[in-house]
Amino acid sequence: MTMSNSTIWLIIIGLGIGTFVLRFSFLGLIGRKPMPEWVLRLLRYTPVAVIPGLMAPAVLLPNEGEALPDLPTLVAVLVTLAVGLWSKKAIWAMGAGAAALVAMVLITGH
Amino acid sequence: MTDHPTPRQSFWQGVRDGGPFILIVGPFGLVFGVVATEAGLDVLQTMAFSIAVIAGAAQLTAIQLMTENAPTAIILITALAVNLRMAMYSASLTPHLGAAPVWQRALVAYLMVDQAYATSILRYEERPDWPVPVKVAYYFGVIALICPVWYLGTLAGAVLGNQIPEWIPLGAAVPIAFIALIGPMLRTLAHVAAALTSVVGALVLAFLPYNLGLLIAALAAMAVGAAVEVWLVRTNRWVKP
Question: Which of B65, B120, B134, B215: disulfide with B70, CB 3.0–4.6 Å?
Fold first, then answer.
């Protein structure tokens, strides 16, 4: 990296402010004003509309220069999803996924 | 369901619900600390990054582009696009927390990370009757351990550098941390339809720059979820989650 210190700080501060503006946006501007029912209905699907799509390309598309997605990650993710569906507890899903990942790394040796 | 916890009780409930996420957030912070210092940032800059932004995915995106010497404006736009989902989180928290004092809303905004948001919104939808101070206290409880561990993880990664044995697959900690949130969210057919739309949309649109594919896929998924809900209500098959 050939960036000057001032550029690095500009990026850190800009990203900090910009991210805060995004996070504060609706909470700050709308506040307690009531929203119409159809907007509330759409908003109820926010988490389930964002997080699967955020992760899908990272997990299902292969890394650069490889033909297939990473197998240990794929197995760990499937276990995480299955345990989450079954237990309805994110914590259990996370623990099971981490355990599956360690097991896969030990089995496949990488 | 008229009895609800005091703010103090719901704070500790939040600590219990959010606390275990530190097992994943710590390694994630470590990864960022290592990557940032390897890219050439000093410890102070690395820490400032994690404290000012608290958004691992966007921070990693920015570092990646910085090592490629991309123009500053492109770095800012691309990394902020990764965080556009935060505006959607903000909107979805507003019906629950919008009536809180502005300083509390500002603090909620600063601390808005995926795990805290997803844990809190799930609880709010179970207990919409909770008074606002109880909801706010729960949120702060959820984040109470996550955020300090994020800072400490970053610090450990920045100071220790890459002394982590190579066989430990830290990179895979990130998808596990996020995907663990999905199972508990899939409570109705409408939620499943939204999730599938999101996955397919994000994969098909992955070629778009600035993470725009995710934004379009997410908006489409919200519309699909709401449409399926309306259809289930009309055909009398809607079971309130």
Answer: B65
